[in-house]
Write a structure and sequence with these properties.
Rossmann fold, alpha/beta, single chain
Length: 246
């Protein structure tokens, strides 16, 4: 198993890409810390990981609340003695064109998608430095590379996440900590459930592979980057988009 014994914190892990990543990490032998705001979803993911023979615990965590994050990290450290991997996956959308976007919409997306990434990394970095090893994986997006209509807030946050990733790669690489970002394209997650079928079909048509990604396909990339197979990959920004941006 590629992640045997690695203590891994995953935010936004109750659904979508986070859920798929938590389940995959559990299968690969990681000790998974399932973090989200949805207690029922957390419990379901933990139950599935344990049911497949893995180890997992769940924590209700708001990534904008430093006290909650620190309490979760302290509990993980007390239980398992270390933190090997952080997957900063939690995120939201609140789309609107610039002319219509409210300050509340902008601030909420920045707080969760950008500052939340900073908060969680800040909470684990001293542990990783003391260990002399660690991996920080950040969820960016193809929107963070190329922008997108109606997503000033989301694009700004995902561009910022790439900035974090490259900066931390430079700062922390010498301390044995790798930092990388994943930029998914269109992924078949619950966030699409309210979209009209025509819109989803148009998304599929824009991708050379002519389909959306499955969450498990993004989880597989996180698994590789968290593993020792990726031991010399640091500061990378990896598009997983089926060729969307070609």
């Amino acid at each position: 198993m590629r992640l045997s014994g690695k203590v891994t914190i995953i935010t936004g892990a109750a659904s979508g890409i986070g859920r798929a990543t938590a389940l995959r990490f559990g299968k690969e032998g990681a000790r998974v810390v399932v973090c989200d705001l949805n207690r029922a979803g957390i419990d379901q993911v933990v139950s599935e990981i344990v049911g497949q023979g893995g180890e997992a615990v769940g924590h209700v965590v708001n990534v904008t609340d430093m006290a909650e994050i620190n309490a979760m990290v302290a509990a993980v450290k007390a239980q398992w003695g270390r933190v090997d991997v952080l997957v900063n996956n939690a995120g939201i959308v609140a789309d609107a064109q610039l002319t219509k976007m409210t300050e509340e919409q902008f601030d909420r997306v920045i707080d969760i998608n950008l500052k939340g990434v900073f908060n969680c990394a800040k909470a684990v970095v001293d542990i990783m430095v003391a260990q002399g090893t660690g991996v920080i994986l950040n969820a960016s997006s193809v929107v963070g590379l190329y922008g997108n209509f109606g997503q000033s807030n989301y694009a700004a946050a995902k561009f910022g996440v790439i900035g974090f990733t490259k900066t931390w790669a430079k700062e922390l690489g010498r301390k044995g900590i790798r930092s990388n970002a994943v930029c998914p394209g269109f992924v078949a997650t619950p966030i699409l459930k309210d979209m009209p079928e025509k819109v989803i079909q148009s998304m599929e048509e824009r991708v050379p592979l002519k389909r959306l990604a499955q969450p498990e396909e993004i989880a597989a990339v996180y698994t590789f980057l968290a593993s020792d197979d990726a031991s010399y990959i640091n500061g990378a920004v990896l598009s997983v988009d089926g060729g969307l941006v070609i």
